[in-house]
Design goal:
Shape: globular
Number of strands: 13
Distance between the termini: 68 Å
Largest sheet: 6 strands, mixed
Order of helices and strands: EEEHEHEHEHEHEHEHHEHEHHEHHEHH
CATH architecture of one domain: 3-Layer(aba) Sandwich
Strand order of the largest sheet: 4-5-13-10-11-12
Number of helices: 15
Bound molecules: pyridoxal-5'-phosphate, the ligand N[C@@H](CCOP(=O)(O)O)C(=O)O
Helix content: 25-40%
Radius of gyration: 21 Å
CATH topology of one domain: Rossmann fold
Strand content: 5-15%
CATH class of one domain: Alpha Beta
């Protein structure tokens, strides 16, 4: 049993309402379960495969889910990078190992299942890339039409390729992501299309399972800190909400310090946290190589401030150089291939450890959100080209200087 509840005024709406913001005050909604009626133990969960659907009692979907085996992603120990930082317990949860290569699949398996549960026949989103790729995949699996709006020229190649190949109608708009989101909200409202950006409270329910899995992978222990890259701020807010639910159920007894990392050219949340502002003031012209988090007006602004402040966490920004350097370190020192936005979380830890904000003894889990192959162009630009060689052993040895 669950309701939709306004995070600001507390107005409630019945389960299975198609609604993205409070009719009374316009603020964000979240799904609230009647936790007392939930009859589940951790042991029951642990008897099921590690996946989004292990936690189905804390998800709103009642029908057969639209699923491609999302979740169950690896939690890697960052041994070498940790050693360099003097940290024994630094981990990365690799969300790039989901079906479409990003954490968005956790949201979309739930969101698209809810679209069908609510009787909606088409879906849409605005995207910096991954949301569109994921929605195209799950729309295809569900057999319903999908529309995605992308900021022209600012979406990594792999993500556009996915959206096109999986059959979405891809619209490239002459404006940034924030404008695309405004447009798709108007489109969905006027045409009765189901909106699947992170303003959709059901979609975020799927994403909270990142935190559940981390705790299960750490044998029931809550890490001291979880560090996530922040763009539209849905993911960090969802993980916080999920762990709060586990605490209310008595499954865990503390919260991780939720720590958000943004790019220096796009850091409205960092400013709000560092300056103690009551609200996030949008960046008009966000810019960063990490195009996934090139977002100036995060739609989940009020949720992310609650998550960070409510958990005693923090926020920090990293430069594009720091992001790319950590992308390279993850690839070469740990064998973990991620896209630039994902590397921001680990780059943020490095910065916060070096400045003394993060204690070296903390157990820290970084969420690395998307796969290396999402953005091949940025990768190729950073690497020396292949060495050309004639097809003889002699030339090969010369090329290898052996
Ligand atoms: C790879 C990647 N990392 C991080 C983010 C940021 O997540 P959120 O918008 O939930 O803050 C996004 C998209 O927003 C993304 O695609
Ligand atoms: N990085 C995102 C931006 C949209 O965020 P959403 O969580 O609101 O869908 C993307 O991949 O498009």
């Amino acid at each position: 049993m669950f309701d939709l509840v306004c995070v600001k005024c507390g107005e409630t709406y019945p389960a299975d309402t198609v609604l993205y913001s409070c009719r009374k005050c316009g603020h964000l909604l979240e799904v609230r379960y009647d936790l007392a009626s939930i009859n589940i133990t951790r042991r029951d969960w642990l008897s099921r495969p590690l996946s989004v659907w292990r936690y189905r009692e804390l998800l709103p979907v009642k029908r057969e889910p639209v699923s491609l085996c999302e979740g169950g992603t690896p939690l890697y120990h960052l041994k070498r990078i940790g050693e360099e930082l003097g940290m024994k317990e630094l981990y990365a949860k690799h969300e790039g190992m989901n079906p479409s290569g990003s954490f968005k699949d956790r949201g979309m398996t739930v969101g698209v299942s809810m679209a069908l549960q609510l009787g909606m026949s088409s879906v849409a989103c605005a995207s910096t890339g991954n949301t569109s790729a994921s929605l195209a995949v799950y729309g295809a699996k569900a057999g319903i039409p999908t529309i995605v709006l992308l900021p022209a020229g600012k979406v990594a190649l792999g993500k556009v390729a996915q959206a096109l190949m999986h059959g979405a109608r891809v619209i490239s708009i002459n404006g940034n992501f924030d404008r695309a989101l405004e447009m798709v909200r108007d489109l969905c409202e006027s045409k009765g299309i189901y909106l699947l950006n992170s303003i959709n409270p059901y979609r975020l329910e799927g994403q909270k399972t990142i935190g559940f899995e981390v705790i299960d992978q750490l044998d029931g222990k809550v890490p001291d800190r979880m560090v996530l890259p922040v763009g539209n701020a849905g993911n960090i807010s969802a993980v916080y909400k999920g762990i709060l639910e586990l605490k209310a159920l008595g499954f865990v007894d503390k919260m991780p310090m939720m720590t958000g990392i943004q790019a220096a050219g796009s850091q409205p949340v960092v400013r709000a946290i560092n300056e103690g502002l009551a609200e996030v003031i949008p960046d008009e012209n966000p810019e960063t190589v990490a195009t996934a988090i090139r977002i100036g007006a995060p739609v989940n602004a009020e949720k992310v401030l609650t998550a960070i402040r409510g958990s005693g966490g923090t926020a920090a920004s990293v430069t594009d150089e720091e992001i790319l350097s950590m992308q390279c370190d993850l690839a070469r020192k740990e064998g973990i291939g991620v896209e630039p936005a994902s590397a921001a979380s680990v780059a943020g830890v490095k910065k916060l450890v070096e400045s003394g904000v993060i204690d070296r003894d903390e157990q820290v889990v970084c969420v690395v959100t998307g796969h290396l192959l999402k953005d091949p162009e940025t990768v190729i630009k950073q690497c020396a080209p292949p060495i050309e060689c004639e097809a003889t052993l002699e030339s090969l040895l010369a090329a290898l200087q052996l």
